[in-house]
Amino acid sequence: MSTEDVNAQLSEKFPGRSEQIDQLLSLLGEPTDASPGCIFVYGPSASGKTTVLQSLFSHYQAGETRMAYVSSVECFTARLLFERTLNAWAGHVPSKENAYSNYRKCDSLVDFVARVSELLGDEEQAETHYLVVDQAERLRGTSVLTSLVRLSELLGLRANVCVVLVSTVVWDKFRVRHGGATDPTLVFFPRYTKAQTLDILAHDCPTGEPPGFFLTFVDALYEVFHRNSTSVQELRHLVAMLYPKFVQPVFEGQATRSEFSRLFKLCQPYFSAASERLYLREISTSEWQRVAPASAKNRAEDVAQAIYELADGSGSGIMDLPYYTKFLLVAGYLASYNPSRLDMQYFARGRDPSAKGRKRKRQAEDSLGGQKRQQLLGPRAFAIERLLAIFYSIVAEAVDSSVDVQVQIASLVTLRLFTRTSSGDRLDGVKCRCNVGLETIRAISRSVQFEVDRFLYDFA
Amino acid sequence: MVDTYKPMDVFDSMTECTFILKPPSQQSQKQMQQPQKKSRAKGAAGRRSSLAVGREDSADRDISANGGFVPLLQGKEPIESMELRRQLFADMWTPLERLLSDTEKKVNNEGVTEVCNFVAASYTRVETAEKGQLASPFAEIATAVVFSGVNTGDHSNLFQSLQDQLYKNDHYVVLLESQYCTSLPNMLKSMLDQVAAGLGVGASGGSKGRAGGGSGTGFKGIPYDMSLLQVWWDEASPRKDSRIVVILQDFEGFGPLVVDDFIRIATNYCKDVPIVVVFGLATSYECVHQSLTKASISMLNVERFNLQRSKQCIDTVIRSVFVESASMLSFGAEAYKSLLDQFLLYSFSITGFVKKLKFAIMDFFYAQPLSVLSAMISRLDQGGSDTAFSIGECPIRLCQEQIELIRMQRSVQRFFDKKVETDGDDGRKYAVKALVDDDFLQDSVLPEMLRHLASYRQSYSLGISMVQAIQDTMPESQRKPLRTLHYYGISQLFDEGSHWKTLSAAIRRMKVPEMVLLLKSLDSIVSAAGSLDLLYVESSGTDIVSLLQQARELVADPDQTLKDEGYGEGKTFPDAPSKRIRTRTDMDNRPFLLFDNSSTDQELRALDIICGYIESILRACLSPYQNVPLYEVFYYRHSFLLDTTFSAQPRAAVQTALGKSQYYVDCDCCNGSSAPGDSDQDDEADERIMPSMNDTSIAYRLHQECRRMINLYDWYSAFASVVEQESAFMPKAPSQSEIQARFVRASEEMRFLGFIKSTQRKTDHVVRLTWGH
């Protein structure tokens, strides 16, 4: 297939990416051409980098053995990366016959270079072999990266190799501090524009649906959601979730396709719920599909209610903790957000009412303008002794200082409701930080009839 | 301390729940023979000689020969009786243990099945024929989020049963624990190892031979790589509906980045290999959002399952163990509270609950000489719904001491007193004979008393069931769980507490049709209980069956029955509502009558009488267990023992060790001249600071006399003056520099233990951090 054909085909498949495809194709050239040593493809996530590259390579060359695709998340050591590459180039697949071993054992760069020249060096007319490294930002700061950038240099004339790095991070962040690194050829994938996005989504139009109607819906959805996320994938996800709800009234015969605003009105509760819950995946795909479909039969409030219940329900609300553990958690929150100098004022028994009055007043002043409120700064680390002192003073009844309390602190740390800030080998003077939000703490204190707000300093 | 009898033995733990089996050295054998004096001393003696355990194996075996059981009653208990106790313990605990584990399994099972169904249904979503449906652009991994509750100790059981169930359904299960998955390579390694074992790749593959029988799966020298998973899966070609289920048992413990990467990798493969991920969450769903990035969360298709059922499980256990009394041993209010508090206030842990229960049962058979009596009671029909007990012969003759012990129980004395009261002269003769004639006591009095006990148990469980039936008519918020009802029931406060008021208000608010329903359900409870021995309830003058019968008649035809019974127009009941609200008092007492227009006066009166009946039935059934003969034996009440054993108090232990070190050390030198066993003099001796004591202990006692600031020099001089007296029993008095060094060490230890802290406020002073003596 000629370069022009490939270009035309891919450009149709990937709207808005023709410029990049063109650029890449011109860099790659004919199979036997000498290619640039390293190409760096970058751009925001969901801008089609990986997909374009993969289909480009599959169209562009006949044999699969010339392209190795590795993800650097998966290949977390240099050895994995090298051996996978060799496997791909050699067309080797681990199986029972070869005892699941890789093509060659390859631990270091030296080995890798030697193996590659062994593998590719004897070919008469060296075709370019490609190594595509996805999520290349993981390689930043490693020696693997520097060597990959100069791989073709290292191999010299023995083999014709091109490394393609794919990343969401710009090249400037990759550049090593001390010289000696060459810059690769950069290919930038910009964010899709609105028109391009709509073009892409037009491909998603379900069979049997009028494309015009579908696109109008997508257009409307784009206008609503593009402020939150411009990711095409996210938008496609939302369309996939919301469109069935949107057209449901049409199938039920309660509205026609021309009554666009009426359909939107019926779908309104779903839209408002989706903007937060669905996008944040507080409701998953399968849970969402169980929500009642939009129709004139359902009242909007009922639907909204059902959606909120879905997100908060099924045990995800307040966690059920043992009674004293709840108090421990509340005490931890108070210790994290109250200044320790005020502990006497808040927790000492038999405080005088005048002091209380004064405190109230100041709180009122501070709550408006306190720029350095702990609430804004995040939780502060506290010593376990302070936590225990607060705990014993907020628990209504007298509690024995038995080992059970200590065990509960330990289990709160394992549950990551407290995070330990002192190092693990320090046994005395352990410091923790409360890792729970105000809303949860409020709910917990409500369940044990404890007014946490009375004890919080400088909270708005 | 509540307990009056104490086993004098090596299994006496002070605070640490640590037992030391000591060889029967000369000393301890001698002590065994001696009349019971201070059990504490005995425990300490055991500790002291513990070092010898390793060496004297033969002696050690001697101690544990009877599973740790020793003859009680100062060694006068016959060997058969001891053997019987041992046997009884085994007989009781074995079925109970099975019951407990079965209960836990049964309770978990429901949730486990839900998860299994989810796993089976994952990846099978056929393209629905529904119009307008689009596929999600993300390759989502089916994920089950399982809320398992904060009782992390029980989780291994839960996940084990989940794993077993999934295995049964031909899935391949990988159970990962955070402690083995600190990094991504570790996690993949343990995952791939388990998958290989499950798919049988490692065992059958030729690799093992080549690798020379290497460890684990035999893939020596091969990096753990997810691409292997795909290869294995294709080669093994398992059944179509099989899945690889990866369970992250304690999600909170996993490093967020590790799980994040894992999910990103798994998404690359989930098209070819059906991977289902199960997160075990102890806290809330928020945690997933906190630890995972947006990118990987959008790869998950989450379903949530709630498996935190420890409360439900405990309720079932309490019902079968305590209320319906699978065994004769029950818990007194104090001990029950201690058992339940540990659960509700601290841990929600079933394992902990079971441990405590087992310890109490062990203690009962181990240290209660009268526990042999439980051999006389057995279930008529094990396993059936029949709750009747049968009283049999005691397999051994009780010894003199046991008989005396029975006679000494206050409840037994009260039982005799009551006999005298009710039966007059016959009763007197009976009582006298029981007090003098041992055989008579064992052969006829004991069975009678036990029959009382058994009958009480039956009516108690009947009463609790009735209360639950009444509760079922009340709104959810007013209901109490069984564990609380049982606590009310045994704490003598049932008809005084607030819940009683709620209950009686609920039945008094009922109208005729509701009352008919309630009576029907009460009836079915009574008839479901099977052959009832209502001796106990009848002895208090309440006849449940006939009262219920009367109530049924009343509600069926109020006018007629009331007339027949003589509550006609002429006769007025003092507190019956003979009229509707006509006075202010009526309004205050029965405001609900204002809204009640449907019932006639007669009906109201009938309802009122029925309520009285029900209340008296409940009162009779749920009367305190302290009225039952021999309750001291069968209601376990050593809550102190449970508390000290399971809720150790480290700070108190340190303070005791330093302030009352003779408690632990039990040496002669520090006890001074006071005779052991004489507690008055002991206290005085505690105050005296002896030079033979440990240096830290001396420093601790001296610092107790100081105020907030401690002058180091004064402290040192006081310390030196005590230590110098060592010359009384040491060959050489310590030198000045030695004393100094020892003082520095002692004060440093005090600082380490958190009693003092250095301060900048005053030179040569330290701050005291604890108060009081």
TrEMBL record, chain A:
Stretches assigned to the Origin recognition complex subunit 5 C-terminal domain: 321-456
Localization (cell): Nucleus
Keywords: ATP-binding, DNA replication, Nucleotide-binding, Nucleus
Molecular functions per Gene Ontology: DNA replication origin binding
Database matches in Pfam families: AAA_16, ORC5_C, ORC5_lid
Stretches for region Disordered: 352-372
Domain ORC5 lid per the UniProt entry, residue ranges: 216-273
Segment forming the signal sequence: none
Residue ranges crossing the lipid bilayer per the database entry: none
Any one of the GO CC terms: nuclear origin of replication recognition complex
GO annotation (BP), single: DNA replication initiation
Keyword Nucleus: yes
Keyword field contains Transcription regulation: no
Domain Orc1-like AAA ATPase: 13-164
Family label: Belongs to the ORC5 family.
Protein name in UniProt: Orc1-like AAA ATPase domain-containing protein
Lineage, uppermost ranks: Eukaryota, Fungi, Fungi incertae sedis, Zoopagomycota, Kickxellomycotina
Automatic annotation (TrEMBL), chain B:
GO biological process terms held by the UniProt record: DNA replication initiation
An example Gene Ontology molecular-function term: DNA replication origin binding
InterPro entries: ORC3, ORC3_N, ORC_WH_C
Compartments it resides in: Nucleus
Extent of Basic and acidic residues compositional bias: 54-63
The UniProt record lists the keyword Nucleus: yes
Domain Origin recognition complex subunit 3 winged helix C-terminal: 651-771
Keyword annotations from UniProtKB, A to Z: DNA replication, DNA-binding, Nucleus
Predominant location category: nucleus
Any one of the GO CC terms: nuclear pre-replicative complex
Pfam families per UniProt: ORC3_N, WHD_ORC
Compositional bias (Low complexity): 23-36
Sequence segments annotated as region (Disordered): 23-65
Ranges for domain Origin recognition complex subunit 3 N-terminal: 11-373
Protein family (similarity comment): Belongs to the ORC3 family.
Name of protein: Origin recognition complex subunit 3
Organism: Coemansia erecta
Gene field: ORC3
